[in-house]
């Protein structure tokens, strides 16, 4: 029996309906979609995985990058499951997989990561969040379930160790079949997975790592740019205002064992985002499902477009990955507007900006773009000195939302009239304002 997809977004779908819908798609569009299940949940439901690309039967896939999207990691966040199905529908039934920037990816979608929790939430307790595995010794099992988004092995220890907590981290990392399944998928996709998106609701935000600490990943600017592209597109389309920033900043608390930190820090996925879908509560009225899905898809599409158009070097190269965290190092996007002379520069530092002020008028203007200081040149050149000085400045925060920090004065060597240098690991010319090295150029 085939599934009537016209009603798909008029109501919330059960695990069974979802399977039926995917089977129908498989029959009708077998060249573009594959549906499989690599694991079962504790209550033995298939954890369905959808693989979509424009030539799914083609086995050899050079230069094909992966996007991994999951939904329903938290059982009560019903709307995220609908959003994931909407993505599948758009790519397959509306053939958006053929769009230029989408077709370079293989889309791997887990529309329902935690099926047991979701069904329990539908049938018994709408606010259920965790998995459904009974905990504790067999004779006195009073509490059930683990919070999947505390069960990954990054800073896992800071999660709650109480069985009955809503945020219980599990007896050990990957204690749940559901999270193990995600881990195995990541391992299988290595190193092709370039974008991980975990759908949650309903905080109206797009978040990037890290969740467990305020120390940002080295490529945070790139992730911020991609998240912002989604925020802007949705704002333009519907007026909705999402926030964006690192998860620990926006949520204002550290979260251990999260899937985005795992994806980014362990699996080296360059872009790992949480989208907290905007909705009224965890179970918005069914009449709103389609509208929310459409809005979310606009944001997701814009993020993928941004990744595909502005960061191709990240997709292609080994420049995928984050260095280990370096605590207390301010990570800045620097931009100077005027320059130095007689060896002294006074400049203004913020998490986003630096403008140098010259003590003499009429000296050349320099522009500095930097996220990280280069090892070999730090301290020995103008930009090296600036960056070194910034590193030693106690900024109030390294978060991008801080706009003002302090003035600095530092001594620099005499400058040639034209300087163009680059150091550190730079991405490419296409990622203009995201250069990961430092650049100092007379203009
Ligand atoms: Zn959630």
From TrEMBL:
**A Pfam family the protein falls into:** Peptidase_M14
Q: Name one GO molecular function term.
A: zinc ion binding
Q: Where does it reside?
A: Secreted
Give every Peptidase M14 domain span. Answer: 11-307
Keyword line: Secreted, Signal, Virulence, Zymogen
Give the Polar residues compositional bias ranges.
Answer: 418-436
Keyword Signal part of the UniProt annotation = yes
Write out the ranges of the annotated region (Disordered): 418-443
Residues of the active site: 276
Any stretches that span the bilayer, and where are they?
A: none
Signal peptide start-end: none
Kindly list the GO CC terms recorded for this protein.
extracellular space
Swiss-Prot/TrEMBL GO biological process terms: proteolysis
Q: Which cofactor is essential here?
A: Zn(2+)
Q: Which family does it belong to?
A: Belongs to the peptidase M14 family.
> What's the stated role of this polypeptide?
Extracellular metalloprotease that contributes to pathogenicity.
Would you tell me the protein name for this molecule?
Peptidase M14 domain-containing protein
């Amino acid at each position: 029996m085939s599934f009537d997809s016209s009603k798909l977004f008029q109501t919330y779908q059960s695990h069974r309906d979802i399977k039926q819908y995917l089977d129908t798609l498989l029959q009708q569009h077998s060249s573009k979609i594959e549906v499989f299940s690599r694991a079962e949940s504790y209550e033995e439901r298939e954890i369905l995985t959808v693989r979509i690309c424009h030539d799914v039967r083609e086995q050899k896939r050079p230069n094909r990058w992966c996007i991994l999207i999951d939904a329903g990691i938290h059982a009560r966040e019903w709307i995220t499951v609908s959003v994931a199905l909407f993505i599948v529908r758009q790519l397959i039934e509306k053939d958006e997989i053929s769009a230029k920037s989408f077709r370079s990816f293989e889309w791997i979608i887990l529309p329902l990561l935690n099926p047991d929790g979701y069904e329990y939430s539908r049938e018994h307790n709408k606010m259920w969040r965790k998995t459904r595995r009974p905990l504790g010794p067999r004779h006195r099992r009073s509490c059930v379930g683990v919070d999947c988004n505390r069960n990954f092995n990054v800073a896992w220890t800071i999660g709650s160790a109480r069985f009955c907590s809503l945020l219980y981290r599990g007896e050990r990392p990957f204690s749940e079949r559901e999270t193990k399944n995600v881990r195995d998928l990541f391992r299988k996709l290595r190193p092709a997975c370039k974008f991980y998106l975990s759908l949650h609701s309903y905080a109206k935000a797009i978040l990037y790592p890290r969740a467990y600490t305020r120390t940002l990943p080295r490529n945070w600017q790139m992730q911020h740019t991609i998240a912002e592209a989604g925020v802007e597109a949705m704002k333009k389309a519907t007026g909705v205002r999402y926030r964006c920033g690192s998860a620990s900043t926006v949520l204002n608390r550290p979260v251990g064992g999260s899937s985005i930190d795992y994806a980014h820090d362990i699996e080296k996925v360059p872009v790992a985002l949480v989208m907290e879908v905007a909705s009224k509560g965890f179970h918005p009225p069914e009449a709103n499902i389609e509208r929310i899905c459409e809005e979310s898809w606009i944001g997701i599409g814009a993020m993928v477009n941004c990744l595909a158009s502005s960061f191709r070097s990240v997709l292609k190269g080994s420049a995928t990955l984050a260095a280990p965290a370096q605590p207390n190092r301010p990570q800045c996007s620097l931009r100077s507007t005027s320059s130095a002379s007689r060896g002294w520069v006074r400049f203004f530092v913020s998490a986003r900006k630096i403008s140098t002020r010259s003590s003499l008028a009429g000296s050349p203007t320099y522009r500095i773009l930097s996220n990280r200081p280069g090892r070999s040149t730090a301290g020995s050149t103008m930009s090296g000195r600036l960056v070194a000085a910034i590193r030693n400045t106690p900024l109030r925060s390294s978060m991008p939302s801080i706009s003002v920090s302090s003035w600095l004065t530092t001594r620099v060597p005499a400058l040639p009239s034209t300087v163009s240098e680059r150091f550190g690991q730079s991405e490419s010319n296409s990622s203009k304002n995201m250069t990961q090295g430092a650049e100092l150029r007379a203009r």
